[in-house]
Write a sequence for this structure.
């Protein structure tokens, strides 16, 4: 059963949200994507499929994840009350497991033999390796060599779970290059492989499909927040890379015009030298990886090099629905730089005993700023999209002095 919000925010028949989305792939893939779309649209309302996915969410992932009032962080910010949607408590440590299980079940029902994907911070890779194990599918994950070094704990986890982790050293050796390599590998056998895209990006139907699987975050949060406070939140905050955790939270509240919604992009080490990944803030419409979106690009329309301390946000494109929401003005997109994210990584750890992923720390940093500008009777609901276990080696190596 679709909600009013889901119906209103779904793409058109060609896979477009406004002027963003679509299918820009080689002709040989068009029929494959159409079969995936047809299978998904059929299965999403199938009672047995929904029952199996709900059961895994409840008994395997541990949903619903709780909403937590961060009283110490609120006191430190000195303004609006800050609440956390604790996606970091999911099995595998992030929101990614929500769509990975959905994609794995779909692939299995379509008769696919192998899941294939890219990963940046490693959370999508770990979640997909986990989903592959539980569904008895093979799994190959492509990861940039720079990210493999930064996120070594997740590389180890993927291998323990039985996934094949393929290093990608071309270009900057980060997320964009991992996507390129995974797509090339997928093209070698799209009949037996299923490309499980890790965010609300890529050609239709993936932005819609991943969004739908992530909607459980917003549906739960809406009910939980009402029960906890007696009203809806005044503000929503989530970090934005491709945008899956954000759209998962936002989707349940888009039809509430009185709620201010903020997506937080990585400003990296600054706009002047281009060392950032603030796609919606600094980009322009273009085409990447089979779809149209806001894109950081050079004068020839090629994706520009990007940077973020958070590997999961290190991508020059963004989901087409976010691009549409920027143009309509329904969501406001802001930025947080590397230094601010690291400061919030330590702040949340020491004030609340919760170590956030560096991706999520961007949202925490902005929420603290926002809270300080608001009255104490206002509320902020923040999607804490992942935990920071994967980042602790990198943090110790590069910011160890800040721990003293």
């Amino acid at each position: 059963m679709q909600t009013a919000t889901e119906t209103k925010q779904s793409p058109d028949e060609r896979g477009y949200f406004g002027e963003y989305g679509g299918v820009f792939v080689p002709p040989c893939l068009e029929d494959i994507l159409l079969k995936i779309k047809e299978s998904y649209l059929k299965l999403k309302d199938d009672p047995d499929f929904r029952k199996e996915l709900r059961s895994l969410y409840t008994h395997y992932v541990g949903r619903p994840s709780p909403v937590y009032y961060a009283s110490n962080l609120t006191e430190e910010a000195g303004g609006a009350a800050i609440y956390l949607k604790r996606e970091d408590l999911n099995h595998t440590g992030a929101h990614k497991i929500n769509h990975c299980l959905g994609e794995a079940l779909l692939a299995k029902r379509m008769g696919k033999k192998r899941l294939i994907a890219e990963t940046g911070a490693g959370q999508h890779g770990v979640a997909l390796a986990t989903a592959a194990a539980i569904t008895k599918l093979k799994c190959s994950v492509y990861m940039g060599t720079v990210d493999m070094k930064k996120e070594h704990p997740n590389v180890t986890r993927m291998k323990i779970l039985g996934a094949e982790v393929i290093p990608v050293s071309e270009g900057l050796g980060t997320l964009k290059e991992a996507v390129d390599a995974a797509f090339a590998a997928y093209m070698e056998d799209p009949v037996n492989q299923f490309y499980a895209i890790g965010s609300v990006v890529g050609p239709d139907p993936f932005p819609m499909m991943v969004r739908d699987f992530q909607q459980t975050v917003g549906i739960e949060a809406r009910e939980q927040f009402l029960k906890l406070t007696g009203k809806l939140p005044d503000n929503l905050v989530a970090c934005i890379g491709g945008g899956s955790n954000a759209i998962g939270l936002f989707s349940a509240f888009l039809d509430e015009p009185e709620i201010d919604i903020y997506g937080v992009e990585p400003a990296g080490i600054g706009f002047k030298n281009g060392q950032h990944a603030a796609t919606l803030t600094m980009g322009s419409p273009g085409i990447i990886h089979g779809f149209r979106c806001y894109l950081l690009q050079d004068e020839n329309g090629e994706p520009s090099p990007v940077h973020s301390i958070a590997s999961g946000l290190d991508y020059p494109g963004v989901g087409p629905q976010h691009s549409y929401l920027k143009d309509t003005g329904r969501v406001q997109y802001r930025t947080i730089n590397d230094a601010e994210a690291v400061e919030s990584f330590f702040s949340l750890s020491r004030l609340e005993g919760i170590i956030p992923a560096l991706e999520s720390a961007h949202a925490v940093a902005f929420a603290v700023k926002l809270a300080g500008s608001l009255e104490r009777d206002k509320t902020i609901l923040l999607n804490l999209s992942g935990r920071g276990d994967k980042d602790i080696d990198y943090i110790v190596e590069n910011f160890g002095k800040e721990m003293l």
Notes: Residues 70 and 83 are 6 Å apart (CA to CA). The domain at 63-93+214-403 is CATH 3.40.50.1100 (Rossmann fold). Confidence is low (pLDDT under 50) at residues 1-7. Residues 206-229 form the longest helix (24 residues).
